[in-house]
Amino acid sequence: MASQQPKSEADSPTELDAAEVERRRKQRDLKRKSRERKKRNLLELQTTAQALELEYKQLFAAKLVREQQQLDTTAAMKSEPNATDIEQPRLVELQEKYKAVRQEMHELREQMTGFKQKLEEYERFIAMLDGHLMGFQDTQTRQEEPTS
């Protein structure tokens, strides 16, 4: 029996060692997977950053091109001072005409409103006259009937 007891004591530390070895192996695997995941995330972030930098450069270049075109356009307009000198008095003239036409339009609308009101009053007057005439005709026919 004495020989069996040391065996069981010897087996216990090896079983613990095996469990410890398995736990350590799992920890190493988890750390390795974590490092791989971090590396993969870092690569994805770098790729995304590069793509965003490229897009920024393209947008910035497009903005510069647009600004240059606007500068060219304004420079071309400024190089022809006679055109703007001629347009300014014409613009003032057109604005005055516009104001006059708007005023006339406003007056015509007021006249139309007045005419509509007068027309409604006239139609009410006609309806009232029709009512009176109908009443008058009824009395005429009543007066003629007894005489016949």
Automatic annotation (TrEMBL):
Biased composition range(s): Basic residues: 24-40
Region feature Disordered, mapped onto this chain: 1-40
Coiled-coil ranges (or none): 91-125
Domain of life: Eukaryota
Keywords from the named record: Coiled coil
Protein name, entry field: BZIP domain-containing protein
